[in-house]
Design goal:
The structure is a single chain. Helices cover 67% and strands 0% of the residues. By secondary structure, it is mostly helical. Helix 3 packs antiparallel against helix 4 and helix 4 runs parallel beside helix 5.
């Protein structure tokens, strides 16, 4: 939630992008909450948030953070049962934190959408 990825923001993004099958807000909420009990997803997300902190504090360069975030993204994708493509391209310039958060949100939405297809 600290970086703007909360359930409301994810659902708003899902609804505005017209992604996948129509999912009710209640169904979406239940499945986003279910992600909280996936230990690998929780661990990857905790590491990702720490990485963002270090980037904001100036302890990491954007390109180094992006490289590590790409590895964490694969771990999150594995935990959610989705394949993660080159979602972190272009995060070495501009607002790296925003780009990384955006990529993470896309992966989370892919995970929820994959559950809708089951």
């Amino acid at each position: 939630e600290r970086f703007g990825i909360d359930e409301d923001a994810l659902y708003a993004r899902y609804a505005s992008e017209g992604r996948g099958p129509a999912i009710s807000r209640a169904w979406f909420s239940a499945h986003v909450s279910a992600l909280d009990v996936l230990p690998d997803a929780v661990a990857a997300t905790a590491c990702f948030v720490h990485l963002l902190d270090e980037l904001e504090w100036g302890l990491l360069r954007a390109q180094d953070a992006a490289k590590t975030a790409a590895r964490l993204a694969v771990a999150l994708g594995d935990a959610l049962g989705v394949e993660v493509g080159p979602t972190l391209a272009g995060t070495d310039s501009g607002d790296a934190v925003h780009a990384l958060v955006d990529a993470w949100a896309r992966i989370l939405l892919q995970g929820v959408e994959a559950r809708a297809r089951v």
